[in-house]
Amino acid sequence: MTPEPRPSRRAERPDTRDRRRALVSGQRSVNPLTVLAFVIPLATVGLLATVDPAPTEDSAKPPSATPLTSTVVVCPPALAGADTLQAALADPDVSGALRTSGADLEVGSGAVATWRTKGTDLLRGQGPTASGLVASRSGGGIATDCLRPSSDVWFAGVGAGAEHSSVLRLVNPDGGPAIADVVVHAADGIREVARLRGVAVPARDELTLDLAAVLPERDDVSLHIQVNRGRLASSVVDRVDPLGSDDRAVSWLPPAAAPATDSYLPGVRRGEGDRTLVLTNPGTDQTLVRLRAVTPESEFAPADVPEIAVPGGATVSVDLGAFLRSRAAAGLVALRLQADAPVVGLLRTTDGNTLSHAVATAPLTGSGATTLAGGDHRLVVAGAQEPSDVRVRQRAADGTPLKERRLTVRPGQGARLDLAGRARWVEVVVDGVPVVAAVESGAGTVRPVRELVTDNWVPHVGPALY
After folding, report:
1. In the chain, pLDDT over 90 holds for what percent of residues?
2. Are the CB atoms for 362 and 435 separated by under 8 Å?
3. What pTM, to 2 d.p., does this model score?
4. In terms of DSSP bridges, do strands 84-89 and 388-395 run parallel, antiparallel, or are they unpaired?
5. Cα 435–Cα 441–Cα 443 angle in degrees, nearest 5
6. Where is the composition biased (Basic and acidic residues) (predicted)?
């Protein structure tokens, strides 16, 4: 009997082959959702890589002006007899309430509001009273402007010694702390003073620093205040008290304009007393400063005043008494400083109990204004690089417009103009050619006329991709 053949191991049942074929087919198939999960993110990254994101602040378009809706100016505490404050608005058609440290103050259309207080006073304008707010403190033959907080301020020619000393005051008008660095430029360069680094002023508080106690120094120094956090309003009281003399002079020292290679000190005239020119070079290399005298007729270099070398980072003092007492200084209205590198300048005049300062002043590009107390006042204008037509607007205390004056300031010339006795507001309007201006009051006080602040400048903002 022949046995049946055994099936080969390679032979498989048909149903087994079908199941294996189906299994292999299922392993090779790709789920469409899985593909999309990989492809879409990769495509998105690829598209973004081809896009050049634009910055949110577009530097190609100039900032736009928007009206001020809120502002604050800070008036320093009174010195002896100077307890009168005045405030006014640039627009003579606007009236409203100003908030002071004491109570609300109503300002009529075009009028100059007057009140008395001895302590630091903060004036806050809201809405229509924010634009073009100007205030000052005066009395006892001296005066100073109430200033807005600033993050970068220069005070040239301050004192920190026994005979010439100064007190720096920092006021924080806001609800958060403010921090500043005070850089000291002394005769031998930048002086490192630990107590003046990281100076903190608590919210809605003020701090006074007697420089003679903080950094005793016989020679003049200059201060550069840089606010790193918050806002601060800065002011300086200057004192000259010669040893062995009964004369003691006290006044406010105005902040100077930022360092420049070509600057003007308006409000300088021929006269007696100690006359000290103070120059500070914030750069690292020595620079030479050339002095020129500006009169209504011409501009000239004083024959007996050579070029002045100012080392890098240092402050230099020069006695100008001989020149400013000479006949060559007759009719003088300003000093011009020309330097190879930016400098800061001030002329200090001490005559008995009178102390005044003519400081480097920022040019007016549109209009500037200040309020006036009673007495005689003179406007000094100089610094035009081409003929400039200047209009001088004046208003009485009740807002009544007084006669408008016009003058043309030419290159190399200056002008001194008597202001009306009734004037309590003066505004200097230029025609597009910048000039520098200052107000002389009484026998000594000189105040720079500062640009009116009426708008906020807002950068152009466009969409950006991150």
Report:
1. 78
2. no
3. 0.84
4. unpaired
5. 125
6. 1-18
